[in-house]
Amino acid sequence: MADSLQKTMINNHNLALPVGTTLDRFINRQQEAFPYAKGELSQLLRDIALASKIINREINRAGLIDITGALGSENIQGEAQQKLDMIANIRFIRALVNGGEVVGILSEEDDEIIQTGNVNAKYVVAMDPLDGSSNIDVNVSIGTIFSIYRRVSPIGTPAVEEDFLQGGRKQVAAGYILYGSSTIMVYTTGKGVNGFTYENSLGEYFLSHADIKMPENGKIYSVNEAYFEEFSNPIKDFIVDMRKQSGCMARYIGSLVGDFHRNLLKGGVYLYPPTRKAKEGKLRLLYECYPLAFVIEQAGGLSFDGTQSILDIIPENIHQRNITYLGSKEQMSKLKDNLDKYHALILEQMENGL
Ligand SMILES: O=P(O)(O)OC[C@H]1O[C@](O)(COP(=O)(O)O)[C@@H](O)[C@@H]1O
Ligand SMILES: [Mg+2]
Ligand SMILES: [Mg+2]
């Protein structure tokens, strides 16, 4: 026991913080590593944690206070907004406005950028306030996903689209909160990935998953097989090969955060390929794909959209969707091989006028 604790302390990116450290203390210690830091990003991470505690409470009692079910409105993606989608949206916006560190917010639930009025703030946040909406009413894990950028627009002015269209490699921090059998906040600031479990009775997040490393090889594949016939051959072949592997498991709960978190810890691959209905894939680049790609690459996994790392995609619009593959190194290189061979074949056929 002493050895493993010692090991956890050493591995913790030299922060030498034992499992059980509060999130607050961890944030302070991380900030000390940046001599010029003024604490704005630290405060922003605390504001996100605070909002997630309030949402966690709402989710836990959702069935008792009639906040389940659809609201009757649709978001810009044409999806029915659930009451909890909007409650989570309002709670996050309120926490970020009151926190004072964010000038603008991009949310899945709002068509336009939300101006917080904090025109002297340095950061903008893109967020999916409630991920896995189809699972809200049936008590299956759901989540929140966030991505933080330093603004490019001048201090003293409102946020603009360019603040959000900087590209995945410009994220200064990103992560998610999973509201599952326990509630856990997992994030990166570009120096590794750490997970904090929420202790309800104390109202605190504690370090529970220090320096998360994704297994290089995994046996889990997560994809909505209902669309199998619509997938391209390299994707079909990849899934068929995964099935043939002994010990392979299909796991798909239909909540991106839940499927992603499981695979991050156990090893595996999440696929949302193009379908007839969603030719660009279903997931939203700025507040689903980029943040999870940042986390997975920091944990030693890979992200891919069929041609490149998701972090290298040049964004065009704030609510754009993107093909999404996220997973363990070995499975992702196999998938990349399949797709590269397929693209080469298509190219050859085109060159031969076929
Ligand atoms: O039902 P499908 O097509 O498999 O899509 C499920 C995916 O859609 C999502 O629900 C989209 O996210 P939202 O719930 O935030 O809209 C993901 O969480 C999930 O992985
Ligand atoms: Mg989502
Ligand atoms: Mg959502």
UniProtKB/TrEMBL annotation:
Xref: InterPro entries: FBPase_C_dom, FBPase_class-1, FBPase_N, FBPtase, Fructose_bisphosphatase_AS
Question: For Mg(2+) 2, which residues are the binding ones?
Answer: 128, 131, 288
Its quaternary organisation is:
Homotetramer.
Q: Where is the Fructose-1-6-bisphosphatase class 1 C-terminal domain?
A: 214-337
The positions annotated for binding substrate are 131-134, 224, 252, 270-272, 282
Q: Which controlled-vocabulary keywords does the entry list?
A: Carbohydrate metabolism, Cytoplasm, Hydrolase, Magnesium, Metal-binding
Cofactor(s), names only, from the UniProt record: Mg(2+)
The pathway that the record names for this protein is: Carbohydrate biosynthesis; Calvin cycle
- Name one matching Pfam family: FBPase_C
**HAMAP family from the xrefs?**
FBPase_class1
Provide the E.C. number(s) assigned to this enzyme.
3.1.3.11
**Residues annotated as domain Fructose-1-6-bisphosphatase class I N-terminal:** 22-209
Name of the protein in its database record: Fructose-1,6-bisphosphatase class 1
Gene encoding this chain? fbp
Family indicated by similarity: Belongs to the FBPase class 1 family.
Which SUPFAM superfamilies did the record assign?
Carbohydrate phosphatase
Catalysed reaction per UniProt?
beta-D-fructose 1,6-bisphosphate + H2O = beta-D-fructose 6-phosphate + phosphate
Q: Which GO terms describe its molecular function?
A: fructose 1,6-bisphosphate 1-phosphatase activity
The record's free-text note on cofactor binding: Binds 2 magnesium ions per subunit.
Q: Where does Mg(2+) 1 bind?
A: 108, 128, 130
What subcellular locations does the record give? Cytoplasm
